[in-house]
UniProtKB/TrEMBL annotation:
It holds the Pfam family PpoB2. The keyword Transmembrane helix applies. The chain crosses the membrane at residues 50-77, 89-112, 132-149, 195-216. It comes from Methylomonas methanica (strain DSM 25384 / MC09). This is Metal-binding membrane protein. InterPro entries: PpoB2-like. It comes from the Bacteria. Keywords: Membrane, Transmembrane, Transmembrane helix. The keyword Acyltransferase does not apply.
């Protein structure tokens, strides 16, 4: 991957994780009186509360999902090098389209968090306190790992050359559209895994790291993705069952 692409992408990933680590430390070290907390009643949420929760989810999606785009982005960058006159920033346009999908998904995650706080299923520290919510999310994520749609989306992510051959669009707008296309398919692959953050605690750094690692490994070509999906799906189902007892 060209250094001019690796530097901004690596910087964005590092900045996103740095923000999440800082926020997690704030939550564990600041007195509760000095800490912002989501309102516990649906009617008490102000635009600033929605904006803050949305920003948190958007940064979390960038931190967790940008590493998984690396194999596709490396293939896209090599493909662009066939044309000596191609815009050198096409890969960033592609990355922007991909990230835009996950930022849009953050709107839905913000809405869910608003609802879960209103139902008192999340604590003011954004930790899960409803075992049936955790079990339901884990069962959903576990079952989804076995579905044909999950496997089809995952195979798209694992075969970047095939995607580029069939979906190639020229120019910066074309790269942006391809990024959105790839991001939409990636969302179809990983949306249920992102919901697990509601089960383990929205700002649980260990949960973020493990889900990021799972998503990355599923898309890494040397790994048997179907076997990994089935193993992780089985573990999610077992974990969900444990939450009920």
């Amino acid at each position: 991957m060209p250094i001019k692409l690796a530097l901004p992408l690596g910087g964005a990933i590092a900045a996103a994780w740095g923000f999440l680590i800082y926020q997690a430390r704030q939550m564990t070290h600041l007195p509760m009186a000095d800490m912002w907390m989501p309102p516990s009643e649906l009617s008490q949420w102000l635009p600033g509360d929605f904006a803050w929760v949305f920003a948190m989810w958007a940064v979390m999606m960038a931190a967790m999902m940008l590493p998984s785009i690396l194999p596709m982005l490396a293939a896209f960058s090599r493909y662009c090098q066939r044309d000596a006159n191609a815009d050198p920033w096409l890969s960033l346009w592609f990355s922007g389209g991909y990230l835009a999908v996950w930022i849009a998904f953050s709107v839905a995650l913000t809405g869910l968090q608003w609802l879960f706080h209103g139902l008192h299923w999340l604590s003011p520290m954004m930790e899960n306190r409803q075992p049936y919510l955790a079990a339901g999310i884990l069962f959903t994520a576990g079952v989804y790992q076995f579905t044909p749609f999950k496997n089809a989306c995952l195979q798209h992510c694992r075969t970047p050359l095939g995607f580029l051959l069939h979906a190639w669009r020229p120019g910066s707008v074309g790269a942006l559209r391809m990024g959105v296309h790839h991001g939409t398919t990636c969302l179809g692959c990983c949306w249920a895994q992102m919901l697990i953050m509601f089960a383990v605690g929205v700002m649980n750094l260990t949960g973020m790291l493990l889900i990021t690692l799972l998503v990355f490994l599923e898309k890494w070509p040397p790994i048997d993705s179907k076997k990994l999906s089935y193993i992780s799906g089985s573990l999610f189902l077992l974990w969900g069952g444990v939450c009920l007892f």
